[in-house]
Amino acid sequence: MNPRRSVPDVTFQLLNYVLLFILGFATLYPFWNLLAISFNDSLDTMRGQVYFWPNQFTLNNYAIIFQNDSLLGAAFRSIARTVIGTALSVGCTTMLAYTLSRREYLLRKPINVILVVSMYVNGGLIPIYMLIKDLGLTNTFAVYIIPGLIGVFNVIIMRSYFDQLPEALVESARIDGASDIGVLFRIIIPCSLPVLATVTLFVAVGHWNSWFDNYLYNSKDNLSLLQYELMKIMTKSTSEVTSNAQAALNHETLRQTSPQSIRATMTIIVTFPILFVYPFLQKYFIQGITVGAVKE
Amino acid sequence: MQQTVQNPPHTVKKTQTQRRSWIRRLGSQYQLVFLSIPFVLLVILFNYVPLWGWLAAFQDYKPFKGVTGSEFVGLSNFKVLFADPHFLVVLRNTLVMSGMSLITGFVGAITLALLLNEVQVRWFKRIVQTVTYIPHFVSMVVIANIVLMFLSPDGGFINNLLMNLGWIDKPIYFMGKGEWFWVIHTITGLWKELGWSTIIYLAVLAGINSELYEAAAVDGASRLRKMLHISIPGLMPTATLLLIMSVGSLINTGYESQMLLGNPLVIDYSEVLDLYALSVSFGGGDYSVGVALSMFKGFVSIVLVVMVNFIARKLSDTRLF
Do residue B290 and residue A275 have CB atoms under 8 angstroms apart? Predict the structure, then answer.
């Protein structure tokens, strides 16, 4: 032990650790509690007192959800949206960012201005809705993918990263006869895995989490996503007081379990994929976000 | 004499050849053009073309006639909007909620970053960071669900806890009390984003010259003193810049959490500008007033961003654009 440690310092440290522990606990506990509820018998849950572990363990809540065709369909569409949307969006964003990192590109300046201004200017909710409707994108799967294809903020993060790669890499590849597209695929992409991982995580999470475009543009059932289904269940169980909520689950399902258990279980299902990929990508994203932010 | 007359056409010709060579150079970059132009067009389509829709604010917009066919009515939509007493309520909610989130988020993030910076046990620090980042990645739907379940009067965790502790004898219906909505909304936002917003401050703290701390230690400074006199001043430039930048988005408080947490009982406290635009447009069928509202919002945020950029430029060399 360091002999110079004074009493106030030790108290300060101790308080600090306790405080941070409480904060970490308060962040994690709600998820843990829902996990326990999702594995607990629904009748027992209604009696309350589920804190850390299920009182009566059951997989029934999950079984009910996975038997529900509309929820399964929504889960399938959510996965499809996330995979397709992320692949296309990261691909397109990378291409655009790459051209902006090439100093000799003649259109670099004007494109830069167009992109940066677009971060501060947008039509607003209703004009964008009118545009999407005029384009015929309402009630299509494409509305989930196309409007978000280019994330301007991601373009800037990527460009900052590409900019700090040594110029000589690109030059030597050009001398060796590589085309611009060849440089992108053979040099830039293999050298930029941290930032690609970061952007992929952000985009994928964005796709997985979004529900508002579903609500606004595709309110018919055949295109609904998991988040939107969860939202419908949520408004359903507050219907005792709000009265205008629509039925989200059919009555048969509700007889087997309680809305509370369904909500907890759905919440866990919707959250799980994120908690699953997050640890794998975590080491990249801090580096990625810091590079982007500091450069800006 | 004749030569001087010939001079002007000659220079014109030169710029033409210059232009032609510029086009030829661009032609040689056709791969870069191919990799960028389609996506730029997409950005223009979804970010700039909706501005055309702002025309509808000055029209009696009919969805089937479109912006080109609807009749112009001047400023009457704006008059309707600004005369509506509910508009002021909604504007108040927007500004109050974004102000509350801004201040708590700012103070919270700096405090947490400072506390984390004092942790010497590395695995503990990493675990706290990892855990506090999680809610950032979870959708607002999930967060709202958790909040509603925890605050539910029907066996919700908070009510159970308070009753077990004997502090209350019957459950409180938290989500039914309008005055509490702002507080619940602010705490929810803080809980979701607190950890995430420390990243940038931790990066700055990590960059502070460690000799400063060593010198202070030699002088016998306590941890608290080091924090007050080294860490906090070190954070200040970044913190000021981030604070100024966030003022630019004061009017864009978002609508997700208000929409998901709100209910008809608390609508006078929960409704924000975007939700109001939705309800007049889709609920009331009055698109023009909705567009006028969108336009008002867009206008205010541009003014705020320009203003903020001006202030930031005055204060430091760093600018937004």
Answer: no
